[in-house]
Amino acid sequence: MTFTDKIIDSEEASYTIEGFADEQLSEILMYKHSSDQLVPNASVHVKQLSIDRGVFDYSHPNLHTAQIRVWTDRIEKRLHFHCTCLETPLRMCQHSNRVLYEIIKNTDIRFFFDGISRHVRVRQVARDYGLEDEADITSHFHMHYVENKLILTPKIQGLLKITDENVRYLKGKLLPDVKPAFREQNLEGKVILIYPHRHYGHLTIQLGELAFAVNGKVKALVNTIDATTLLWHEKRPEYIRFLAALSRFPQPTKEPYNEDDIRALHEIVKNPFDMPVYYQGNSKQFQAKNFSRVNLQVIGADQFTLGIRKKDSLYQISPLLQIADQWYSMQELVFAFDCFLHIGKTFYAFKNHNVWRVCRFFKNLGTDLIVHASKYHLLQSELLDKVSDTLKVNYAFLTEGYDQSSMETPVQATERIIYLSESENYIVIEPVMRYGTVEIPIRSKRPVYGKDDYGNSFLIRRNDEQELQFLSFILKQHPYFPEQLDDDLLYFYLHQDRFFDGNWFLEAFEQWQIEKIAVMGYDKLSISKRSPYKAAINIEVTSGINWFNTRVKISYGSKVARLRDLEKAVRNKSNYVLLDDGTYGILPAEWLHKFEQFFSLGRREGDLLKTAKINFQALQSAYETDMFDSGVKQELLLFKQWSNQEEDPSLKIPEGFIGKLRPYQLDGVKWLHSLSRLGFGGCLADDMGLGKSIQIIAFLLLKKEEGKSGTNLIVVPATLLTNWLQEFEKFAPSLRIFLWHGGQRDQNHTIDSWDVVLTTYGTMVSDLDRFQEIEFDHLFLDESQHIKNPLSQRYRAANRLKAKIKIAVTGTPLENNTFDLFGQLSFACPGLLGNKRYFRDVYSTPIDKFGENRRLEELLHKIKPFVLRRTKAEVMDDLPEKTEMVMYCEMGEEQRRIYDVYEKEFRSYISAQTEEELSNKSAVVLKGLMRLRQICNSPLLLKDKYSNVPNAAKIEWLIEEIGQRSVQHKILLFSQYVHMLDLVEDQLHKQGLQTLKMTGSTKVKDREGLIEQFKLDGRVKVFLMSLKVGGVGLNLTEADYVYLIDPWWNPAVEDQAIDRIYRMGQKKNVIAVRLICKETIEEKVLQLQQSKSELFTKLIDSITLTKTSFSKEALLQLLSR
To answer: Taxonomically, which superkingdom (predicted)?
Structure first.
């Protein structure tokens, strides 16, 4: 028990201020209730504080202490004090007076007793948290009095306080540095320094800054710069390579230098910043004044020559280096740091590692190589020929040959070849020129030589111009190739992924073929399962009876892809299609997209892709005109003209039709006639009550009078069988009708002799094998929303029936979402909407989940010619007035108590669950929602738990209301709970009223009798129906009042129920009443329906689509007060 409970239960106040209000907290209140002056030097210490409650300790150096408890009774408007001094004065004791003074003067203490100032104070704090507009603002904060200070903290853990100071703090902690990630370096005045390390003597290259004397000489080294720090801020590739190369050389470098070291020196020589270079070579006397300016140059392989001279029986091999038109022997060269050639004021770096190795070898050797003639040919084949791939070899003893007739084997015409091979994950591309029988890589420097008739060797001049053209051609084929020229390789290379990236290889292979370049080695690659040829695609569309037939021929060289393998590739979204030799052809991305459209519009049958003619609009959009043959073009033109113009105005009402057709109904007959003429199906989706059945009857009669009609099948809900029979008898008695239902279906009838076969959905499923034996002229599904689920047994059965024309008939083509259309139109117009997966991905999900208007407009345009829908507001100006109203019922005390207990328990349960847990407990959630709705009707629906609860609010209101209305009106009562109908019926019977009731348990054969009795028996004024059984198809215009006892989640279902009486033939004004219990889930559903909020959409999706997941946000909104 808390201290506040203790005060109320066991302690009496020693003093009470009557008629207390927050605004009275002032010194006037003190003077009014206490005659004592405030005692000097007294103090008050807060022991406990909460809203309207407090415990205080009073102390004084020379007087007794006391403890004072203070509490407020807001209902009785009293402020109570209890002091332990136990004085019983007529006025407030001095201790309580001092506490009252602290409450008045100390704003932090006053906060707990003054609701007005508390609200203002909390709102000020709440503003920083974004809570200032919440209804019960104080309920969002914890309130504590700690160390003589009020502390307010939000109850939502982690809720951010958004102030300028906090935002600045968060920005500083979470946002990146505002400085650009890359910025151009300002290296003005900086130089490149080359020098030996002061202590170890190894090569050091750094950026630095020098100070110069007036005469231009170096005066001092100001500082050095770490290239690594500049590297992170650079974005230009050549500058990045330069800085990365510099960062390699402050560290000791092992000798001999490796390939990366030589490459780094080459990058430094490029010097993209164009900085001056200074060098000093004495590590022992390291002084700034010893730096002198030098130039940097590069030495390439083309500057190096191995000269081979023959003298008697010896061959002399002499290396020479050409620098600035001057030839140097190796003995003349000076190496700096063993990696630069130092000539005058120029430092020469080697372009590649191989040239540096050869020069260094001969420099260290100190002499030429001498080989005896007997060993020369061995050295030539094993070494010189291989060296000549990368270095120039000059055979001084050979002459160039020009006379081909003097050769032992005549030189063949020059041929260009590309060799393909693999190296790990890379494809090697080696361009080669063939000279006679000799093949030379064009990146090689190897000479070509032959022999004359006397056995003497001579050089064959290589076709430098043609080789250069070949090389240029290759370099242009990929952006990676030019930079590979520095690699001193005989080939180019690409990673396998880049080799087959997009269409690169296909484009390159095609260009090689055009250029007549031979390609060798592709069949030996591990990836050679892929065809090197581009796809050659030919498509031709011809016309069939009900289909457009597409023949696809796709070939790669001499290999062909079969249609089924193409379909498999498209379905898997793969760019590789299997060919008839087991290899794979690469399917271009744009064609993969086109084939996705082609296959989504039709289905494959053997080597043909068949697209329903009803999908002519999509066919025209997906295919190119030159793919159509002349017959298809003419047919498409006819369909386009039909979809854009009115029907034949000469079409009249059939002579055998008894009665009149309204203008819009005649338009409907013409529309059905045009569909039949073109061989198309459709969906007649007129609003409920506009006479869809009459239009169908008139159409069938018209077809018979034209002599073009065979036997037609109409499938209807069981409750509508009699209604259809009566309509045929009334409007077209000349049509012969066979009822395939019940015992009559066992009779041995010849179906061909009947104009119309009438059956039910249940019979259609059970007798499917017999129905499949017949091909009907026209097939109509009334209330076709029965097949909206493509997974249902009814849908599968309906699609197996054979008919020339199929028509879906419904007043509510959309009940829950766009996917409702697919089931009905895929039956009536097969192929129009593609397959189920395509429709969901392209239309249903984008429209229903993301609200994409573009997709919605596209869908409406696609189905417009095949769906005819008119509303009452559009075509009927003679319908009587319809009034819809909501009756709010106040629950009795016991019903309210029961509802509040269940709602609180359910809300707590939902709050404690995560989204994932809710998705796994959908059955529990549905049960909780159903219980709340049942209690709104009557707690008696919970059966044994509340068997003694008195009548609920809705039942009491209904009994009184119906008692008054039934004198002059007929009434429909709808509920989704059969037990609720039983309760209402029982009370009506007690009032002496005759009723009828129809639920799911009512036998089909008895339903029509109940409907007829209600229409004809003037004593029966009330018809009770379950929403599912009586909500569709029935015509009950004899009634003019309809009561919806419990609202349904989806308003469309309620509208269907109301339209049982508000339809063609109704002469009286219609009153529709929805019963709602106030401050319950029912009222919240109604509010969400009217607001059409996103939360309501989420809720409806969860409940009506039998999904397995619920939106926690939507459920809590539904349960909020």
So the answer is: Bacteria
